[in-house]
Amino acid sequence: MSEELGQLIGKITHFFGHISVAVIELSENLKVGENIRIVGGGIDFTQPVESLEVEHKKVPEAKAGDSVGLKVSEKVHEGYKVYRA
Asked: Which DSSP symbol is given to 20?
């Protein structure tokens, strides 16, 4: 992992384009209010985590191993990496 990108916290496993929601399989904990950076396929952007959902329920924090849904500001694809910004 390149330290320039920050701490790797997960990867995109699905993207729902019609609602701009990505599903991220977490390898580290993540909280609402933190910033994430998504990198892959020529895309590289940072955004705040405004809400998280685990199994269709809003949660303030998700743990490593969880698959979480969150709204993203750009189109992403499976396999893109997610870093703590």
From this structure: T
Taking the C-alpha atoms of residue 2 and residue 55, their distance in angstroms, rounded to an integer, is 31
* Owner of token pair 């910033």: 35
Q: Is 51 a residue whose pLDDT tops 50?
A: yes
Cα 52 vs. chain centroid, distance in angstroms? 9
The H-or-E segment that residue 9 falls in is strand 7-16
Residue 19 identity (one-letter amino acid): I
Residue with tokens 């990108």: 5
Q: How many CA atoms lie within 13 A of 9 on its CB side?
A: 23
pLDDT of residue 69 exceeding 70:
yes
Answer whether 75's CB lies under 8 Å from 38's CB. no
pLDDT in tens, 33-44: 999 999 999 999
Q: Is the dihedral of CA 30, 44, 1, 21 positive or negative?
A: positive
Length of the chain: 85
